[in-house]
Amino acid sequence: MTVFVIRRLMQSGLVLFVMSLIVFFGVYAIGDPVEIFISPEADQIERERAKAALGLDRPVWAQYFAFLGAAFQGDLGRSFVFNMPAITLILQRMPATLELAVSALLLGIVVGLPLGMYAGYRPDSAGAKAILATSILGFSLPTFWVGLMLIMFFAVNLGWLPSTGRGETATYLGITSSLFTIDGLRHLAMPALNLALFKISLIIRLARAGMRENMLMDYVRFARAKGLPMRRVVFVHVFKNILIPIVTVIGLELGSTIAFAVVTESIFAWPGMGKLIIDSIQRLDRPVIVAYLCIIVFMFIVINLVVDILYSVLDPRVRLSEAKG
Amino acid sequence: MTMAAAARDPGIQSPFRRFVADFAESQVAMAGLAVFALVLAAALLAPLLSPQNPYDLNQLDIMDGRQPPMAKSMEGFVFWLGSDDQGRDMLSAIFYGLRTSLGVGAMSAVGALALGMAAGLLAAYFGGRVESVVMRIVDIQLSFPSILVALILLAVLGQGTWKIILALICVQWAYYARTVRGTALVERRKEYTEAARCLALGHRRIVFRHLLPNCLPPLIVVVTVQVAHAIALEATLSFLGIGLPITEPSLGLLIANGFEYLLSGKYWISFFPGVALLVTIVSINLVGDQLRDVLNPRLQK
Cα B179–B182–B188 angle (5° rounding)? Predict the structure, then answer.
């Protein structure tokens, strides 16, 4: 077990190091921020001064080591645009993104699980077929286009929901979130639904497959033979067994939901870190791009590591095959 | 003799005929195939079908800007699907946009297929350290969502048609590599491979003439699914403004272009390119679903 964790940790460290190399040197190769921030009439001396102020006059590798040294102290550079530490900028935006991602996942469970269970319980009914067709559509529909259609329908035609921004936030138990105000919830509804669409489809499929598989099991027949009502068999016995794969997948999906929030945030002008990275790429705000990519890769590595370790704790077979391989 | 008759008479079936007959069993899949053929034709024949060349500025008239669907243009033809802010016929723009989208999707699929197949075959055939290095890279890459990998690459590479194709190849090769390796591992243990090795055939001949053809069926399924993914991902990235340059408008860019007019109720600039994108992706997915059923050896009768 310890060997397994140590090996995984070393691998994670290596991936992070390689990523920082790729990102730093790659981002260095595109565009020259000096060109953007200095007026074209500026003379050579002014240019040199600006370069020195931004630390761009040193050789690339020296910049990289300076970056690496600072990164270990939690400093990932200053944004050219906002003139504040990149890491502060990203951490300020992170709660909005997490709020959106978690709401989307919850929505996925609340909507997807009952629909999927019904579709698996009565696979031949018309309702089940409609649910399945919807979930196939949910996989095929491009997220950004659905977002636009939501805006068109609910914001422009019906005028029910606001189309941009996060709305009013309130603080409860030390957490500032738009989940705690009516205005905030109204702002959150469309982006969360947009981001949840793919999760809903996924959970419908998983719940449906799980339901069909479990209904044929001996324990269901035994529970029925014992005289338990169908309601109890489905909602207590089968339900628990369906949850196992769904909980695992949801854990894994949290990361990809945060990554895909980039699209939803851009459409609904949601002030999260996904919108920040897109804006920064377009403005060539190099420190923010590098910092965002490092932070998100770090987040993913941590999530993957935790999931791997949990797997090996829960299922000894994984651990054994690792030790051999 | 027709295909259907051939399917009924098992004596004269060639594998290809049986494959066609199996595929044709699903009407939904045949409909998907027909729709995809139409989409492909529209993309290939765009210059012939379009009422105007949407990127020839001489043919555009700013007076025609933002016309609703079915409106008449200054030159007399009808804007079936409306026009955008520069007086560009949306129908023509969609035909040309399909060209770009399908082209980018197909090109990245070919690139990723070549790279992934080479890596997967190498890993499966030689095993040992080659295999563990290749498969570790595949595992690590697949643990990140595709949009994040694409975002990193495009942030690093910058914009451009070839850059986005390169980014899509880098995103997708791992899926092909994993599929090929899995199948090749099974095939390698079979007797025909052993026989080929006993005949002292060269590595290259065994890999390309014996192993590869037998790995194709599952690969075909992965290709269809991944082409649809590539098209959707490219549209998403172009919509975000970090994909294709404005000189080669794909469907994603058309949709992004109409975004600002959506709020003032001019829905058609975004809506119709989105429908075209959706129809393309759904038709490819329907074909892919049926291919998966037909080519899956476990489901074969």
Answer: 130
Structure tokens of A221?
A: 């027949």
* Interface contact B236-A144, CB threshold 8 A: yes
Which residues share a beta bridge with A78? A85
- Environment class of residue A207 by beta-carbon count within 10 Å: exposed (0-12), middle (13-18) or buried (19+)? buried
A293, B255: Cβ pair inside 8 Å?
no
Alpha carbons A187 and A210: distance in angstroms, whole number:
34
From the list A22, A142, A151, the residue facing B262 with the nearest CB is A151
Distance from CA of A156 to the nearest CA of B (A): 6
Q: Does B228 sit within 8 Å of A140, measured CB to CB?
A: yes
Q: Kindly state whether B267 is in contact with chain A, defined as any CB-CB distance less than 8 angstroms.
A: yes
Contact (CB<8Å) A148/B242: no
Residue B156 touches partner A, C-beta closer than 8 Å: yes
Tokens encoding B126? 């030689």
- Which residue is it, tokens 């923010």? A288
- The yes-or-no verdict on residue A118 having pLDDT over 70 is yes
d(CA B94, CA B102): 12
Task: Please list, in sequence order, all residues whose beta carbon lies within 8 angstroms of the beta carbon of residue A276, skipping any fewer than 6 positions away.
Answer: A89, A90, A93, A288, A292
Q: How far is A259 from chain B (nearest CA, A)?
A: 6
- pLDDT tens per residue across span A248-306: 788 778 888 888 888 899 888 888 888 888 888 888 777 888 888 888 888 888 887 88
Q: Which helix (H) or strand (E) holds A184?
A: helix A182-215
Q: Which residue bears the tokens 């594998």?
A: B15
CB atoms B232 and A142 under 8 Å: yes
Query: For residues A236 and A219, what is the distance between their CA atoms, to the nearest angstrom?
Result: 12
- Look up residue B100 and give its two tokens: 């770009």
Cβ proximity of B68 and B268 under 8 Å: yes
SS3 breakdown of chain B: % helix, strand, coil, rounded to 5?
75, 0, 25
Q: CA A177 to CA A183: how far, in whole Å? A: 11
How many Cα atoms occupy the beta-carbon half-sphere of A118 within 13 Å? 12
**How crowded is the C-beta side of A168, counted as CA atoms within 13 Å?**
6
A-contacting residues in B 93-152 (Cβ below 8 Å) = 132, 136, 140, 143-145, 147-148, 151-152
Give which of B230, B213, B234, B210 is closest to B222, Cα–Cα.
Answer: B230
Contacting residues for A173 by C-beta, under 8 A, at least 6 apart: none
**Tens-digit pLDDT profile for residues B250-260:** 888 888 888 87
- Give, for A182, the enclosing helix (H) or strand (E): helix A182-215
Q: Which is more confident, B157 or B274? A: B274
Q: 10 Å Cβ neighbour count for B160?
A: 15
- Chain position carrying tokens 């031949």: A124
> Nearest-CA neighbor of A262 among B245, B118, B243?
B243
| Cα–Cα distance for residue pair B270/B89, rounded to 1 Å | 13
DSSP result, B12-73: G--HHHHHHHHHHT-HHHHHHHHHHHHHHHHHHTHHHH-SS-TT-GGG--GGGTTPPTTEEP
